Amino acid sequence: MTNISIIDIWTLSIKHYIFGVEGTHKDTLYYKRYSEANLWNNWEIDDAAMERNIHILKQCMQKNSEDGINKTIAVGTQILRTANNAPIFCQKIKDLFWLDIKVLSHEDEAWYLYKWLANIVGNHTFWAVNIWWWSTEIVSGDAKQLQKSIQIEIGVKTLKTMFRDNKTNTIDRNAMEEYLDEYIQIDASHQSILFITWVLDFYLSVGPQLGYQFTESTFPNHPIIFDLKFMEGWIQTLRTTDIATLRTMYSKDPWFVDNVAIGQTLYYKVAQKFGASQICPSQYDLTDGLIAEVV
Known about the structure:
2 domains, Nucleotidyltransferase, domain 5, five-stranded mixed beta sheet
């Protein structure tokens, strides 16, 4: 078995994975999300953010050393594509840790998102949706090929900025949904499977505490699946549950819940446009596609 570490540098967090990989089989041996990383500051990475992230990356590299990692891959997404001084940050990381950060293009993100799911879908055609802070990546394909890749310039942070009332710190949900109905124009009316990323652990941890029971999925390592009606009720429950309560329910990453209802609404609206017959929170994301490339 080969132990591979992937360090995924997002705009507002760093995710550190250690995978045990043997052939096409992968086990997640270690995972930690550092929500305090936060590189975002008006398209510039300031000195404080650099130092904060360097400190976190030092912890990641120490963990890799302790665990005898065979290979470390560091990737960056939107903030490292767009920040004016992102090359300075990347060079600092290389100088300190001998670690090259691979800055992923939108095309890279789409390919890696597709790559691992293609191994499990059998004869199904599928769609997969990956929401970022400022954009959303959508891919479709089957076991043979990536058929379509769509990137829409809207994400969780975009919606929060557009529809938050700063005085009351509330979101105008109706206006947001009307906007998404108008904005998302996708020609995909057939009944297909839709995979959504980054939320499986939240569903499994918080769902039972909110009284939800899930239908078992038949896709390998994907434990749950549901339809649009279920998701609509789920979103209503999230919206009407106090944020402080949700944070308690998801204590492993309480910051995540602040934006979860917005993200779920975006997933739901995309699923509506697809006419998705089934929605499956994915066990896999683009990190798994990276694994498929290097083993």
